[in-house]
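quick one, 199 residues, struct below
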Amino acid sequence: MIKRIIVVCLCALMWCGNPAFAQFAGGEMPSSQTKKQKNTTQRVFTKGYKGSFDFGAAIGTGGSTGLYTSHGYQFNPYLYTGIGVGIGGGENFEGDGGDNILLPIFAECRVNMLNPNRVRNTPFAGVQIGGSVMESTQGLYFHLFLGYRFPFRRAGRSAFTLSLGYQTWKGEYHRIYEYGDNYSDCFCHTAALRLGFDF
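---
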């Protein structure tokens, strides 16, 4: 009789150690809902290297088109900081206008407003601050923007991006007078639209 009781107790202990029983005891039964949630909540957008390429056009008191790239560190699903460079052409609409070559070098900070590991698409905000190193546009470069990410798959690390922002840069314009030509500096204030890819 005692042997039977011991055997029953051992069987009960073994059954209690079963993972299914442990989940039941914790108030959760295994289900397809839980498994589906685990599959869709991926940890692919975490800390580490991250880069981006953008093609943009801007129009306002000046106009410009250019290609920009930024590379840096993703601290968590929300915060990215890095450095970047761009190249493009700019035109100042002040006076008689003037064509300029833009070559900005900048620091960038970008923040996702939602967790990309949990939602497919997320809006983001960012800022780029630096300066152009070309002689005709040497000076401040500033770009403040809002955008939206469209990843290739749910919770994807790589995505297409679309952003709209405010951009300013120092340009040079040319005035023609009777006694000669005059070159002056002026800041261009523009609305900037950019299409990009981040990875």
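Strands lie at 48-60, 62-74, 79-92, 98-102, 104-112, 122-132, 139-151, 159-177, 180-198.
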